[in-house]
Amino acid sequence: MHLKTLILIIINSLIALVIALLSFSSYQQFSNVLNDRILLQLNSIKTLKQNQIEHLLKSEWERFETSGVFSQNSDISLLKLPDSIKKGNGIYDLTPYHIAKKTTIAFISNSKKRTRIKVLDYNKIKKILLERTGMGDSGESYLVGQDFRMRSQSRFYPNKTPYTILVKTKGVTNAIKGKNSRGVFEDYRGIDVYSVYSQIVVGKLKMVILSEIDVDEVTIPLKELRERLAGLTLAIFLLAVMLSLFLTKIITNPIKNMQKSLRIMAEGDYNQTNEFIKNSKEIKEMFDALAHLKASLQGAVKFSDDIGKMNLHSDFKPKSPNDLLGKSLLAMRDKLIEFRNNEENTRIISKRMLVNGMENERRRLARELHDGIGPYLTSLKHYIENRVQNEVKKSEMKKIVDDTISEIRLMSNALMPASIDDFGIGVTLTNFIESLKKSTTVTIEYEDLTQQENSNITNHQAINLFRISQELINNSLKHADAKNIRITLSEFDDFISLFYFDDGIGFDLNTVKLGLGIINIKERVEICNGTITINAAPGNSTFEIELPIEL
């Protein structure tokens, strides 16, 4: 065999093997990264929709519990419910009991007087599930009941009643067993899909939520990559053959020239020289591009994973203005942040409304005690003074009535001090503490540094500051075994400061089970948008509370 033929076979075989291995490795890495990215993106979408549905059900249940409406839906007449469900209490999936098998999620509340039922507007859930941002052309999210029948409208069978579609897939089976996972398997149409699934459990309602996208759509980039790699491999191989021919010529020509030169040198001529140049950058550039693509995909996958874990402060930037997937992920993160912020604001507003309602009820009870029972007792006192002849009995009866009037006055003042509306929190706390000093041996010092005129402390803040002070003093007197208490209420241009000190036994913030008193204090500070710092050292327990001025 000639040297030229042997070199051609060795070089081209090695080049073909290297190209095949590199192409296969790159294809596998791209496929794995793409699979992970799609599943993580689906998981983020599923998590968002699950959170939205759970929040919808809980908020609708709370609204239903607080309302006094007996029923609000015409669909209730189409339900054939067994007594076991009619006597229940909670959120139920009543689809199997609907005459037309229409998807029906209902709230049932039972009391001694009556049974209340309300059917949730299905369009609210449908709106959440039909939001398909980041799900391509074939993606969908849907709900399945414990009976393996669909509960939400299939986008592929829009004219079918959801309940008539049986969805006994691997994902639904695993989710019903309590396994939340992801994978690639056939869906209810018999088509391979990427699927992420989990179980929604709200009260007595159990459903499976799935987010899926067709494998054929996802693998389009893989097919394009495979075709490009095949074309690129063929081009490189042909180039390699041509290059190997050129290289073998470069290699064999020097050998022939060396043979000729040796003959010339044998004749005494040593001036023969040969130079050969080789230069190629194509393969290096190709793998640089693949390495850049891999790095880009890995960054997007990591960001998707962070979103799935609700780490919404993770930093991510699209690789270019045309990076549609990167922009979709950022939009999804922003929606999750907005949803979480709205949920927190709703929670604080609900607490504030609850506390305001409680204080209004206390104000009403205090007014009724003062304006209702008080005049009757006063009239009774005048009657005793003018009509009872026996001075001993008169004295005894007057003392009882006076004690009752005093007790009602104390109860009315504890429920809602009248001075808080007329004179503000400073005077109210002063009066409250002065009355406490008459019934306790504990030394209580109070310093009022609020503005007596043109004060910026709102009535809402004043009531909460009064309740917080009541709770702190009560804890010191009942539990702390304190001898001295110091309280300072200060009003500044930007904030209000309440400083509280006692020399009691203190408590360990890390181990103590905080009672309702501390929890109520923290919640009142929170609904006033304030901050609280607690130091519970023995002999030096302090609470520092700051509330912003509400202009």
Automatic annotation (TrEMBL):
<keyword id="KW-0812">Transmembrane</keyword>
<feature type="transmembrane region" description="Helical">
    <location>
        <begin position="6"/>
        <end position="27"/>
    </location>
</feature>
<feature type="domain" description="HAMP">
    <location>
        <begin position="249"/>
        <end position="302"/>
    </location>
</feature>
<keyword id="KW-0067">ATP-binding</keyword>
<protein>
    <recommendedName>
        <fullName>histidine kinase</fullName>
        <ecNumber>2.7.13.3</ecNumber>
    </recommendedName>
</protein>
<dbReference type="Pfam" id="PF07730">
    <property type="entry name" value="HisKA_3"/>
</dbReference>
<keyword id="KW-0808">Transferase</keyword>
<keyword id="KW-0472">Membrane</keyword>
<dbReference type="InterPro" id="IPR036890">
    <property type="entry name" value="HATPase_C_sf"/>
</dbReference>
<keyword id="KW-0547">Nucleotide-binding</keyword>
<dbReference type="InterPro" id="IPR003660">
    <property type="entry name" value="HAMP_dom"/>
</dbReference>
<dbReference type="InterPro" id="IPR011712">
    <property type="entry name" value="Sig_transdc_His_kin_sub3_dim/P"/>
</dbReference>
<dbReference type="InterPro" id="IPR003594">
    <property type="entry name" value="HATPase_dom"/>
</dbReference>
<keyword id="KW-0902">Two-component regulatory system</keyword>
<keyword id="KW-0418">Kinase</keyword>
<dbReference type="GO" id="GO:0005524">
    <property type="term" value="F:ATP binding"/>
</dbReference>
<dbReference type="InterPro" id="IPR005467">
    <property type="entry name" value="His_kinase_dom"/>
</dbReference>
<feature type="domain" description="Histidine kinase">
    <location>
        <begin position="364"/>
        <end position="551"/>
    </location>
</feature>
<keyword id="KW-0597">Phosphoprotein</keyword>
<dbReference type="Pfam" id="PF02518">
    <property type="entry name" value="HATPase_c"/>
</dbReference>
<dbReference type="InterPro" id="IPR050482">
    <property type="entry name" value="Sensor_HK_TwoCompSys"/>
</dbReference>
<keyword id="KW-1133">Transmembrane helix</keyword>
<feature type="transmembrane region" description="Helical">
    <location>
        <begin position="229"/>
        <end position="251"/>
    </location>
</feature>
